[in-house]
């Protein structure tokens, strides 16, 4: 099911022939953002930890979104970078210096495998900075990212993001039959919630306007629920 490509990648439609590279002792997962996308990547973290229990797994996340992964028992080290600062042309000198320092730090870790679940130019650059040739990602990765991977996994466009991620995990030899979302330990329980035996949690915003449900609709929804709402 897998075949070599002129660019050095490997196409795997269903990953029936698992990854045959060296047994990874240290793995870097690149999934910086957004919040929901990071959650979608957690089943890959779980699958890799089960398939390679002796491997130490690191994760690259964007500043401001990394908190969901802090203290995660399956992540040995969390690499955090300021994605928004990297986008600003005026920060170019500082970004260049940061990239040089990041490259040195990543290469010092001597990763055996890099898994790019973001599939963009920025994540591809981080993968290259890690210094290993064993890089896997999506055949559909954008902005030229796929040309930096040794292994390119084909994922049907109609699949949910979690299922696409699990195809990468399956190619890497993992059991991807059922995705598991290993969340890190929760923080302190807010005292105010103790007064509510039951409650619904509402998150009435999103990063972009097209993803935001109007506030008044959240209000109508909250007023129609038989339990308290926590925003």
Instruction: Round the Cα radius of gyration to an integer and report it.
Output: 20 Å
For the sheet with most strands, the description reads: 8 strands, mixed
| Helix/strand order | EEEHEEHHEHEEHEHE
Percent helix among the residues?
Answer: 25-40%
Structural class: alpha/beta
Which stretches are poorly predicted, pLDDT < 50 over at least 5 residues? 1-16
Number of strands: 10
Number of distinct helices: 6
**Overall shape:** globular
Q: Tags for this entry?
A:
single chain, 231 residues, alpha/beta, two-stranded parallel ribbon, 6 helices, 17% strand, disordered N terminus
Question: What is the gist of this entry?
Answer:
About 30% of the residues lie in helices and about 15% in strands.
Description:
The chain has helices at residues 35-51, 83-87, 92-109, 121-129, 161-171, 215-224; strands spanning 2-4, 10-12, 26-30, 56-62, 77-81, 113-116, 135-138, 151-153, 199-201, 228-230. It has 231 residues and is an alpha/beta fold. Helix 1 packs parallel to helix 5 (161-171). The radius of gyration is 20 Å and the shape is globular. The chain has an 8-stranded mixed sheet, with helices on both faces. A two-stranded parallel sheet has the order 9-10. It has 6 helices and 10 strands; from the N terminus they run E-E-E-H-E-E-H-H-E-H-E-E-H-E-H-E.
List the helices and strands and how they pair.
Layout: E1 2-4, E2 10-12, E3 26-30, H1 35-51, E4 56-62, E5 77-81, H2 83-87, H3 92-109, E6 113-116, H4 121-129, E7 135-138, E8 151-153, H5 161-171, E9 199-201, H6 215-224, E10 228-230
């Amino acid at each position: 099911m897998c075949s070599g490509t002129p660019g050095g990648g490997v196409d795997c439609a269903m990953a029936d022939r698992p990854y045959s590279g060296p047994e990874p002792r240290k793995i870097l997962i690149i999934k910086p953002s957004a919040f929901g996308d990071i959650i979608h990547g957690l089943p890959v973290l779980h699958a890799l930890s089960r398939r390679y229990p002796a491997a130490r797994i690191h994760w690259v996340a964007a500043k401001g979104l990394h908190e969901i992964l802090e203290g995660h028992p399956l992540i040995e080290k969390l690499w955090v970078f300021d994605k928004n600062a990297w986008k600003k042309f005026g920060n170019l000198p500082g970004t260049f210096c940061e990239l040089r320092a990041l490259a040195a730090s990543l290469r010092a870790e001597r990763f055996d495998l890099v898994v790019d679940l973001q599939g963009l130019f920025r994540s591809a650059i981080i993968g290259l900075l890690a210094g290993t040739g064993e890089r896997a990602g999506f055949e559909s990765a954008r902005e030229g990212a796929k040309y930096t991977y040794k292994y390119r996994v084909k994922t049907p466009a109609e699949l949910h993001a979690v299922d696409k991620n699990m195809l990468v995990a399956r190619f890497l030899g993992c059991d991807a039959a059922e995705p598991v979302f290993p969340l890190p330990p929760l923080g302190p329980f807010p005292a105010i919630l103790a007064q509510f035996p039951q409650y619904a949690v509402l998150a009435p915003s999103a990063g972009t306007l097209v993803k935001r449900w109007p506030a008044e609709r959240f209000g109508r929804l909250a007023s129609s629920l038989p339990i308290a709402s926590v925003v």
